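TA notes, week 10

Several of you asked for a full example with nothing omitted. So below is the full record: structure tokens for the whole chain, then the designed sequence directly under it. When grading your own attempts, check the secondary structure regions first.
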């Protein structure tokens, strides 16, 4: 009988150089760039923790020690805020160190997302685990990881998050061929293609940055040769599992997702989240309306 324990481990790849955000990322990891006043990576860790994935491994790289510092306690800063009676900022500073139990390992020779996930083998062991990419921020009001964990518990195997994208954009993603299931919003994946040309894409359902993976993925990744870009692709490993008859399902996400993968989308994410914040939203929306109207 399959182990029905609820997963508790999450893996967050964060070893990229962040070249699209230079020069800001020369000394600051891309994952710590603020979305309003919270680093992007903190949103991701909080999302994992909300569904019980509270044992979190960050796959990092040389020069990114600031990520570990952010999720550590800051006694001097906390003492100064406590002395000032600044309870709100004190709570905000402590929040990052209380979200989850954090672990860190370096991806010494970055060879793609599949290789980054393979670096988590010893941490994960024989357990089901989540993988969350930092470029995709999922609104906390919309469920994604929870339903994915439910599908994995029911069906076994691996589960990917899927999003309908315009046909002309499929070449930016891994793309799924699928069959419907009896459950609305859940499909059975029958094939996967990494960044296909629009005319060759099997559908417009694209894989976004959330996965729930069975531990068998590690053996598959070890046998997966470098693919597109000379890197080990998780899409290729999942495709191998499909072809080997192992179950791979997709949960179609129809909620709010904020893409921080490039500069323009990052700015859009900041504006959207700022507009919805109760503390800064009303003033910011008013200014934004005046700015768009040419009055600011």
């Amino acid at each position: 009988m399959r182990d029905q324990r609820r997963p508790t481990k999450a893996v967050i790849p964060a070893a990229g150089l962040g070249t699209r955000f230079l020069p800001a990322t020369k000394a600051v990891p891309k994952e710590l760039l603020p979305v309003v006043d919270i680093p992007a990576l903190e949103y991701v860790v909080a999302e994992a923790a909300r569904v019980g994935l509270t044992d979190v491994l960050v796959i990092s790289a040389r020069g990114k020690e600031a990520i570990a510092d952010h999720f550590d306690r800051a006694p001097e800063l906390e003492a100064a805020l406590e002395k000032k009676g600044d309870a709100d900022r004190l709570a905000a500073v402590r929040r990052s160190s209380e979200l989850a139990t954090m672990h860190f390992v370096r991806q010494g020779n970055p060879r793609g997302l599949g290789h980054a996930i393979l670096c988590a083998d010893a941490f994960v062991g024989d357990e089901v685990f989540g993988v969350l990419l930092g470029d995709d921020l999922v609104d906390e009001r919309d469920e994604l990881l929870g339903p994915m964990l439910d599908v994995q518990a029911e069906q076994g195997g691996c589960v990917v998050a899927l999003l309908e994208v315009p046909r002309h954009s499929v070449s930016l993603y891994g793309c799924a061929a699928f069959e419907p299931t009896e459950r609305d919003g859940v499909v059975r994946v029958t094939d996967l293609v990494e960044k296909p040309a629009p005319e060759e894409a099997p559908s417009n359902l694209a894989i976004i940055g959330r996965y729930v993976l069975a531990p068998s993925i590690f053996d598959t990744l070890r046998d997966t040769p470098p693919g597109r870009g000379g890197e080990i692709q998780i899409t290729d490993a999942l495709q191998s599992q499909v072809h080997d008859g192992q179950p791979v399902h997709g949960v179609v996400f129809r909620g709010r997702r904020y893409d921080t993968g490039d500069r323009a989308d990052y700015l859009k994410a900041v504006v959207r989240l700022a507009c919805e914040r109760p503390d800064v939203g009303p003033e910011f929306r008013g200014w934004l309306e005046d700015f768009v109207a040419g009055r600011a």
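The chain has a mean pLDDT of 91. Use that as a sanity check on your answer.
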